[in-house]
């Protein structure tokens, strides 16, 4: 593939910690699921090199800081996942900005806003999205809950991604079960817990790549072969994301992307500032888009919903990565 036209950088500094795929830990005990699998890292490095760019890989943002003097004219791309720190997604942009190095994605402030499910839901509502009924439990001293915010709820750690802490047991209609799980999650993750209305429907994401003042959009759906209504009664949980037990695929459904949803998406992104690329995750319930989360650090594997949604529209994986890098110009 030809180099990116008029691209001002010759080297990409990739911050990526690799997931231990041999770990024997139970899925409910894993806090490392936002780290990158080796296959994705290899595919990404090869795609960047195919664009005529050099790649320097570091496993932690501190290595970028230690070597900042040799990267003044480079571009940083982070897929760093880290573990058990509410600031982990903000480390790479903070280090980059401190040393005056260009980077892909939102700044530290934007990263933290997106990571906080409560804050991002409030902003999404202001932007015009429909959001599920929810409440926040900050400490165990707020327990027990006397009522649930809706008949069926999902219980999530507030500041985690990649479905960390999420299994099918997190979907419940039982008050006693809910109180017990909330208590366990607060203790394990040392952070507030979001108690949220469960929304049945299609599991979808509105994927975006911001290039200059324009953006490319692709609405995608996770479909389970032979069971089109699977997500009416199931979560897209950590076990499924890691082990891929279902026969599922990513389908781009731009024909179902309504103008008011797109307008709300643009409004939401304007609140946060430059994000570059990412996903707005949600459910299509009776044809209506319901906002769940905003993910600026979308899984960038060729098989992930983000890249696949654009590949389905005729792009190659290398073209998708080229456009991701162009968002930094």
Give the topology:
Elements lengths: L10 E5 L22 H13 L3 E5 L2 H6 L8 E4 L12 H8 L3 E2 L4 H8 L1 H10 L7 E4 L15 E5 L13 E2 L2 H15 L3 E5 L4 E10 L2 E11 L13 H6 L4 E5 L6 H14 L4 E9 L2 E8 L9 H7 L5 H10 L3
Parallel strand pairs: 1-2, 1-3, 3-4
Antiparallel strand pairs: 5-8, 6-7, 6-8, 9-10, 9-12, 10-11, 12-13
Polypeptide structure, described:
With 329 residues, the protein is α+β, with helices and mostly antiparallel strands. It folds into 3 domains: 11-104, Rossmann fold; 113-130 and 200-326, 2-Layer Sandwich (D-amino Acid Aminotransferase, Chain A, domain 1); 134-197, Dna Ligase, domain 1 (2-Layer Sandwich), CATH 3.30.1490. Helix content is 29%, strand content 23%. It is built from 10 helices and 13 strands. It has helices at 38-50, 61-66, 91-98, 108-115, 117-126, 175-189, 238-243, 259-272, 305-311, 317-326, and strands spanning 11-15, 54-58, 75-78, 102-103, 134-137, 153-157, 171-172, 193-197, 202-211, 214-224, 248-252, 277-285, 288-295. The strands form 3 sheets. The chain has a 5-stranded antiparallel sheet. The protein has a 4-stranded parallel sheet with strand order 2-1-3-4, sandwiched between helices. The chain has a 4-stranded antiparallel sheet with strand order 5-8-6-7, covered by helices on one side. Helix 1 crosses helix 10. The chain is globular. The model has no long low-confidence stretch (mean pLDDT 95).
């Amino acid at each position: 593939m030809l180099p990116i036209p008029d691209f001002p950088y010759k080297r990409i500094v990739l911050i990526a910690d690799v997931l231990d795929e041999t770990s024997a830990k139970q899925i409910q005990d894993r806090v490392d699921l936002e780290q990158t699998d080796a296959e994705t890292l290899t595919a990404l490095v090869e795609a960047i090199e195919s664009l005529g760019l050099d790649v320097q890989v570091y496993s932690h943002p501190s290595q970028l800081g230690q070597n900042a003097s040799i990267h003044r004219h480079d571009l940083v791309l982070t897929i760093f996942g880290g573990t058990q720190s509410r600031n982990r997604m903000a480390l790479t942009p903070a280090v980059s900005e401190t040393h005056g190095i260009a980077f892909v994605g939102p700044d530290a402030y934007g990263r933290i806003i997106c990571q906080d499910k409560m804050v991002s839901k409030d902003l999404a509502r202001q932007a015009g999205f429909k959001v599920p009924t929810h409440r926040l439990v900050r400490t165990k001293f707020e327990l027990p809950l006397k009522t649930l915010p809706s008949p069926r709820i999902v219980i999530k750690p507030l500041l985690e991604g990649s479905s960390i802490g999420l299994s099918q047991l997190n979907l419940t209609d039982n008050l006693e079960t809910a109180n017990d799980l909330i208590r366990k999650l607060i203790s394990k993750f040392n952070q507030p817990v979001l108690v949220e209305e469960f929304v049945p429907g299609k599991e979808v994401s509105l994927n975006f790549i911001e290039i200059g003042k324009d953006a490319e959009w692709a609405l995608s759906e996770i479909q389970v072969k032979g069971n089109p209504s699977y997500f009416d009664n199931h979560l897209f949980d950590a076990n499924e994301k890691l082990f891929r037990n279902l026969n599922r695929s990513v389908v781009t459904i731009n024909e179902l992307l309504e103008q008011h949803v797109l307008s709300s998406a643009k409004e939401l992104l304007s609140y946060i500032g430059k994000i570059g690329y990412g996903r707005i995750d949600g459910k299509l319930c009776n044809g209506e888009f319901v906002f769940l989360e905003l993910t600026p650090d979308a899984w960038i594997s060729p098989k992930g919903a983000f890249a696949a949604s654009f590949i389905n529209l005729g792009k190659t994986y290398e073209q998708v990565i080229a456009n991701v890098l162009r968002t930094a110009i």
